Each structure stands twice: as structure tokens, then as C-alpha cells.
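Q: Sequence in, structure out?
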Amino acid sequence: MTPVFSHGDLRLYLLNLLDEGPRHGYDIMQALADRTGGTYTPSAGTIYPRLSKLEEEGLVSKRVDGRKTVYEITDAGRAEVTARAGDLEGIESELADSVRLIADTVRGNVREAMKSLRADLAAAARSERENPPADETGGTEGDDPRTRAREQLRRADLLLGEFRSQVRAELRTHVARGGEIPASAVDALGESLDAAARALSAGLR
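A: Exactly. Output:
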């Protein structure tokens, strides 16, 4: 799921980015990715034709700086940005809503992965209580299998708690410093949790 610009919105948003200052093509693509929290990364085939069109309309000019082509907004482009300030506010609001929806979906996936992991741990504890491992003398390890199972479950809960605290602290510190949190990074977290849950399930069989 990615935020989608309505017809003409991307054109105006590009002008708005250039109104903030000159940019080269890759910088524009990166700025769009940053403004959407990494949920939308346009391709060169999406950006450059629109920049060429804006140049044809006299709203953008370009110059070569070393090996890069830098695009700048013209007075006519700046006038359009000013005249359509209300439209820009609407675009920003729609993007924020779209990114928020994506973030909520990702958070839900992570919560489900955590629930699955906890369920697997509980199943492991039940299995150990019902089928305690035999030692070399034919008895069972430890004096009380239930106590041992509860201890391992507590240990697993502590590990999960420490992991959650560490991730939340790192994310909050990153945001406090003004950093963006790409959806791809959160997706990777969800995938890692899913992989951990699958590995645990396999180990319990």
C-alpha cells in the first residue's frame, strides 16, 4: 500500500519542492520518499517526464552542475505555487492520512506477530509440562517440570519486554532528532518477528 497522488497533484507537489530550493532529480525523489515516511519512492520514469513538462510550461528551468542536472522554479512556477496554496494544503493532508493508515496497518502486523510469538511460547510451556524430557537415568530433568516451564516462560517474557523497550527507545530517539521512520524499516521489523515466530514453532515440533 502506497500513497497515491491524484491527477495533477504530483505536478503541483514537485513545484512546491522546488519552491523550497533547487534540487537535482535524485534529490527530488528522495524528498518525496522522506515526506511520505518511505512509503512512496517514485521512479525516474515518473519524475523526469513531469520535470520536462514543467520546463516546457516555463514553470521550471534547469542547469548542469558538474554531472548533475539541477532544477529550479521560475517566477511563473512560484506564482502558481502561491495561487494554489489551498490545493497544496489538501495534498499534504491527504498524504498525512495515507501515511498514517499505512503506519497503522504495519503496527497491526507487528502486534499480530508478537501475539503469535507469545502463543508459541505458551504452547512450548504446555508441551514441556505434559511431556517432560527424560534424563539418562530415566527420570526427568529438574525437580519440578512445571516450575522449570514457568521459569522458561518468564525468561521468554523478559526477553520480549526488553526487545520491545529497546525498539521503542531507538525509534523515539530517532524521531526526537527529526529523523523519518521509513515504512520499509518497520516492514523489516515485522518480517523479522514473523521469522522468529516460525523458527520457534519449528523448534517446538
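The beta strands are 23-24, 60-65, 68-73.
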